[in-house]
Every structure is written in C-alpha cells, then in structure tokens.
Amino acid sequence: GMLAGLGVTWTAPGEAEAEREATWEERCGELAAFYEEHGHFRVPREDERLRRWMDKQRSTFEAGKLSEDRAARLEAIGFDPAATKQVTLDERLEQLQAYRARAGHQNVPVTDPVLGRWMWHQRNDYRRMSMSGKRVRRLEAAGFDWMVDWNDRMEQLASHAAAHGGVCDPPPSDPFLGGFAANLRAMRDNRELSQDAEARLNAIGFRWSHGRDGGGGGGPYQAKLTWEDRLERLRRYKIEHGRDRDPPRSHPELGNWVDNQRRFKKKGKLSAERAAALDSVGLGWGAVKRDPGTSWDEQYAELAEYRRRHGDCNVKQSHTGLGRFVHWQRCVNRRGKMDPSRRA
Known about the structure:
Number of strands: 0
Strand content: under 5%
Distance between the termini: 5 Å
Shape: flat
Structural class: mainly alpha
Largest sheet: none
Order of helices and strands: HHHHHHHHHHHHHHHH
Helix content: 55-70%
Number of helices: 16
C-alpha cells in the first residue's frame, strides 16, 4: 500500500479546523484567479459559492473576527473586506502614483496598513514567481520596483533549473527571468561579470546562449569548468577541509554545484557513473535544499523516511514541507478525490 501502508491516519488533532483552513485557501485562490482574469471582484450570480464566501469575509471582518493573516492575504490580492466597492489593480497603482508624487519615491513602508502591505505581498509573490505574467507586465509598465537583489535572482534561477531538469535557460518571454538572463549574457560578453558570479551561474546550469544544447548530451552548459573539473576541485576541497565536510552553499565554485548534484540524484537524473565518482570523494547526499517543485513521489519517500525515524506519520502541520503534504493528503481523501493507488 501507499499512504495507508505507511500508517497515515485520515484524521489529525484539529482536523476540522485544518479542513476549514484548506477550504479558505481554495476560495481565496479562486477569488485571486477571478481577479487576474477579469480585473475586478464583481463575481457573477452564477458563482453562488464564491459570492457567499466573499460575503462571509465581509461579515467576519465587520464582527472583528477576521484574523490579521487572512486580512493580509485578502489585501494581497486587492480584496478589501471593509469596502462595498472593491479596489482594482488600476486603483492601487493610482494610489501608488499619488504616494510617489507626494514622497518623491515609492518605498512605502510595510507598516502602512494598506498600500505598504499590498506592495510587500506583490514583491513576495514576484520573488516566489507565483504571480501571473500578465500581472507582472502590468505592474512593471507602471514602474513598480520589485526590490529583488542578486541572491533573490539566484534563487529564482535555481528554481527554474530544478523545474527544467537542471537546465537554466529562461526564454526571453519569461516574465520573471527573461530580461535578467539576457542582461547576464550581455554582461559576460562585455567582460562585466565577475568570475565568482559566472561560477555560481555555471553551477546551476545557466546557458550562456539561449537555446544552446550545451555542446552535447543536453546537459547544463559550462562555459569554463567541466563537470570533471568541478569534481577535481571538490576532491581538493575534501583533502584540505576533511572528507566529512562538504562545501557550503556560499562557496563560489562548488556550493550551488554540489547542491544541484544532490537534487539531480534525488530526481533520478544523475548517472550512476557520476554518483559513484561523487561517492568516491565523500560527498554527503542528505543536505539538499528544498525544491519548491518536489513531486508527490518524492514527498512520499520523505514521509516514509520520517516514519522510519519516528515510528509514525504524525508530522506537525505547517504551511510548507512535509507537514503541508500530509495535511493536504487528508483533505484530498476527505473530499473523495484521492487516487485509490495512493490511498491504499
């Protein structure tokens, strides 16, 4: 069996509350999707379920019982439970333009209960690349400042690579990374990119010519250092620092590269020959950074390991990671929508 075979129980402490939270998240996602498509919150009468949910948020707010977290989530998508007329994206941008005219900048403090918090959520969604391309282009056309730094961009590129088999080649049309990737290629051509930055980009499989296949085999394009070069540098690192010590992620040449080898192995994309070579120099396999695109099978394997260590599957519920995975399996099962092969 799958989940039942591991001993997953279909109820948990506070299950009813958790179920309500999951339903709330679903409705909030539906409302956000409606707004993305239509640009307003005038939900038609035919969608009675969503309209009732919106009315519930307003009445809960009026009664002073809407949590700060939920209020912030609603503000992030532009829905104001206190208003009878909802604020559109255009109106939010007009508010931002007025603020810029008054203050001479658009760095609204996050302590601003409306505009500041709204901007914080837009930036957070952009960093996580969970915003629609249409919204990205609309905000950028209005001069919205994402306030992303180099590390934010590297995280985005690493996520892109993890979702594309270890190859980081954002197309020009990518709303988050297309322009940034083009700038990186131009900087390298003009010798304006530092060696450390180039090494970090090579380590995550960044391709220096869009659409290039990396010179054979479809693997990540390495402009200077081959895979074997990096293996040799890892071997020397181990000699210098000790066989049991792996390079930290901050290491300019090996940090991201080592992390990617772990991720490729976990996804079954690392050849047996390369895995054996890494084993021979003593690379530890357990410290891979969490991949936001982890599959159901990978999370199931993680749950099996948790059960082996703890003797049960009672993972503490959370908004991320294994706790969220177990919580959602219970929710899907309760609604009768779970694949029988996964439940057995």
